Amino acid sequence: MRMRYGSTDVLHGVDLHAYRGEVLALLGPNGAGKTTTIEILEGFRKRSAGEVRVLGVDPDRGDEAWQARLGVVLQSWRDHGRWQVRELLAHLGRFYRPYGTAERQRPYDPDELVALVGLTDRANARIGTLSGGQRRRLDVAVGLVGKPDLLFLDEPTVGFDPQARQDFHELVRRLSDLEDTTILLTTHDLDEAEKLSDRILVLAGGRIVANGTAAELASQVSGQAEVRFSRGGESYVRSVQDPTAFLRELFADFTEDIADLEVRRASLADVYLTLVREFESGLRTEASQLSEVTV
Ligand SMILES: Nc1ncnc2c1ncn2[C@@H]1O[C@H](COP(=O)(O)OP(=O)(O)OP(=O)(O)O)[C@@H](O)[C@H]1O
């Protein structure tokens, strides 16, 4: 798919496919077009060109029944400051009731939902009095209220404390594993992407430049591993292509003397930065030329 704002092409050819129940993380530098991609998929923005199918439907033609199967968490929920948490969720939930099915009763029970996002003790608080992180939990609850088949999360954990982040990660895994919810999330937190997602997509310069698991991405960039050890009281660091072969030789030569051994593979952060740098310097072009999107 392509997207042009005025005379500027923001997305040149984005090709992606998500399977049911899969968690996809969309990474990319600021301004790469992640939010634009999500807005096109949820039918909020019209694409300039290309084929897009979301739950089998072109988002430009999605009706209410289709919308009811999507959950969206964009930027923070700033309105309705006078409403109470549980009251707002019960109110929004009513819109989804006609779209429930035998396998998927809609909406979530408001008390269950409040508990799911860890807001039970704030259920009767006015939204205007919530802290930043509590508000973000409410954003997630608003995205979930209709028990979506497909959930879009745009930087969902900004402002979360470590406990809230961990709780949220459990929630995402649970939605994917138990409810078979397909999830597309954007994040700048690479640990989060690695921990949460089944697959990672990197968007840079309007194209998907990488698509795979964290391990697959690592094997795409010329991977060096770092081996640290000490011998006879001295510390050593070696950058090697094949750490197993290096260690075999090292131990063949000095079995007794080696201590403090540590092997460090490229982290997702290293891989991501290398990919984006290679793309920006023209070393890497695009992962694919297709312009079809199915979610
Ligand atoms: N309505 C608009 N009109 C013109 N240009 C826009 C519009 N919305 C976004 N853009 C431009 O499109 C590009 C992609 O923006 P987008 O918000 O999709 O990026 P992003 O990857 O989500 O960035 P971030 O990581 O900063 O959230 C940016 O250069 C932005 O300035």
Set out the fold topology.
Elements: E1 3-5, E2 8-11, E3 16-17, E4 23-27, H1 34-41, E5 51-53, H2 64-67, E6 70-73, H3 85-94, H4 110-116, H5 132-144, E7 150-154, H6 162-178, E8 182-186, H7 190-196, E9 199-204, E10 207-212, H8 214-220, E11 225-231, E12 234-240, H9 243-254, E13 258-264, H10 268-280, E14 292-294
Parallel strand pairs: 3-14, 4-8, 4-9, 5-14, 6-7, 7-8
Antiparallel strand pairs: 1-2, 9-10, 11-12, 11-13
Bound molecules: adenosine-5'-triphosphate.
Task: Please tell me about this protein's structure.
This protein has 295 residues and is of the alpha/beta class. It has 2 domains: 3-218 and 270-294, P-loop containing nucleotide triphosphate hydrolases (Rossmann fold, 3-Layer(aba) Sandwich); 224-265. 33% of the residues lie in helices and 23% in strands. The chain has 10 helices and 14 strands. The chain has helices at 34-41, 64-67, 85-94, 110-116, 132-144, 162-178, 190-196, 214-220, 243-254, 268-280; strands spanning 3-5, 8-11, 16-17, 23-27, 51-53, 70-73, 150-154, 182-186, 199-204, 207-212, 225-231, 234-240, 258-264, 292-294. It has a 6-stranded mixed β-sheet with strand order 6-7-8-4-9-10, with helices on both faces. Strands 3-14-5 form a 3-stranded parallel β-sheet, with no helix packed on it. A 3-stranded antiparallel β-sheet has the order 12-11-13, with helices on one face. Strand 9 (199-204) and strand 10 (207-212) form a beta hairpin. The longest helix is centred in the middle third of the chain and has 17 residues, at 162-178. The protein is globular, with a radius of gyration of 23 Å. The two termini are 13 Å apart. The relative contact order is 0.18. The mean pLDDT is 88. Adenosine-5'-triphosphate (ATP) is lined by residues 5, 10, 28, 30-36. The site of adenosine-5'-triphosphate has 10 residues, from helix 1.
